[in-house]
Amino acid sequence: MKVTEIPLLKEDDPHFFMANLRLEIFLKTLYCSKRKKNVYSFRDYLKRALKWQDYLAIYQHDELKHNA
Question: Which of 8-11's residues contact partners 24+ apart within 8 Å by CB, and which partners?
């Protein structure tokens, strides 16, 4: 089993605890689930589980202009 797209947050980030707790819940449900897949996306799970503003705060990236 492989879980992809797990965000890297610093411990002082205000969303660290929430993301860490959601990851533990997600992994526990996967282990108890009878439906087995090889790859799961934590990002897709958070889209369904969190409020949209919280999701954007975790996954919002500053995009580089012109690959600089």
Answer: 9/58
Per-residue pLDDT of the chain (68 residues; tens, 9 = 90+): 899 999 998 999 899 999 999 999 999 999 998 888 889 999 999 999 999 999 999 988 655 566 65
Q: Where are the alpha helices (DSSP H) in 1-68?
A: 16-32, 42-49, 52-59
| CA distances from residue 54 to 2, 11, 19, 25, 39 in whole angstroms, order as listed | 24, 16, 10, 17, 24
Residue spans of the domains in the chain: they are 2-67
pTM higher than 0.85, yes or no? no
